[in-house]
Amino acid sequence: MGINMVPTRLFFTKGVGKHKERLTSFEMALRDAGVAAQNLVRVSSIFPPHCKLIPRKEGLKFLNPGEVVFAVVAENSTREAHRLVASSIGVAIPSDKNAYGYLSEHHSFGETEDQAGDYAEELAAEMLATTLDVDFDPDKSWDEKKEIYRISNKIVRTANVTQSAVGDKNGRWTTTIAAAILLFEDK
Prior knowledge:
Blueprint lengths: L8 E11 L2 H12 L5 E4 L3 E2 L4 E2 L2 H5 L7 E11 L5 E11 L6 E9 L3 H19 L10 H11 L2 E12 L6 E11 L4
Parallel strand pairs: 1-4, 2-5
Antiparallel strand pairs: 1-9, 3-7, 5-9, 6-7, 6-8
Helix pairs in contact: 3-4
């Protein structure tokens, strides 16, 4: 193809949609997230070396209608009234800018936004820690593991973007999405 396929920037977005049709509720969630006009291609979960994390508002400016956009996406839906759903993307970024990091997708029922977000963040951090040979006990609490990662100086940042929602009281589909949108060289 002749172009560099390593993304240079990434932004997080999230959204929720409700509708009587499941597909339309997904579309509404994409609209809420600001990425309904793009053709999303789901990819696995590597945070590229030298990639810059940018704010959603800035990232949305780089998107064009109809554009093919690579994304790590977490999605969940329910039509059960009052059921709690969540979608979350976690990230773990190494301190070495030449190394790659990890993104994780998590979708759950019955978890609060904080619970789902912490879980996704922990997943990403554990995946990165295992590639960096950071010694940790997987049975320790997330707070204890965060301290180990901080002390190791190998993981510089962890974060998450999470969308939760309560199932529509009238039984319409409720869909949550969280996404990491990957962008290439400046346009």
